[in-house]
Amino acid sequence: GGHFSIFPQQMHKAIVFVLLVVHANALPDGIFEIGSLLQGSSDGAGRSNCQSRRGLVDCQSIGDDCEFVNLPIGCNPTVPKSCTKRRVGFPMRQAKVKFPCDQPFTKRPMVLAYIQGGDNSKMYSTSLAEVTNSYFRANIQRTDDVDNPLMSCDRLQICYIALAIA
Q1: What pLDDT digit, counting tens, does each position of 44-80 carry?
Q2: Residues 91, 145: Cα–Cα separation, whole Å
Q3: Beta-bridge partner residues of 86
Q4: In 3D, which of 82, 135, 81, 79 has the Cα closest to residue 108?
Q5: Residue 27: CB atoms within 10 Å
Q6: Cβ atoms 110, 99 nearer than 8 A
Q7: Exposure b/e, 34-71, CB count within 10 A at least 16 = b
Q8: Helix, strand, coil percentages in the chain from 3-state DSSP, rounded to 5
């Protein structure tokens, strides 16, 4: 057989080449680093062509987590603002979230969603009601059950990862 030798000054180039080849082949098909979700074409205004992406990560504001209801105690219906007693409630709500894409995903992506609120002591449950190639719809409910819950309102964001599945 033949004999192959590498001079010391070329050794580092050979090692880098081998590491690049091993790294390029290290991930099986369908598996990728989460950082590659952020790659793809964008128009500079945050909108992308989702047909050329493996997925995306985003958070969108969906409003307050509560609503106030006037109580009929001490109210005069003919006098505006006479209802001074109000009750705060945290009803189940649904949010429709459009993917920030000029071109939708080719197929329905897999969506993993969670709620981010202003106060970390509140707990929310999220379930997906619908997923299409251009948007998803999520059900959101406050679900913490503590002795002294916070009854203040907070702005909510729905954060998600949408993964294109081949």
Answers
A1: 455 678 888 788 899 999 999 888 887 777 677 777 7
A2: 14
A3: 70
A4: 135
A5: 11
A6: no
A7: eeebeebebeeeeebebbebbbbeeeeebeebbeeeee
A8: 15, 40, 45
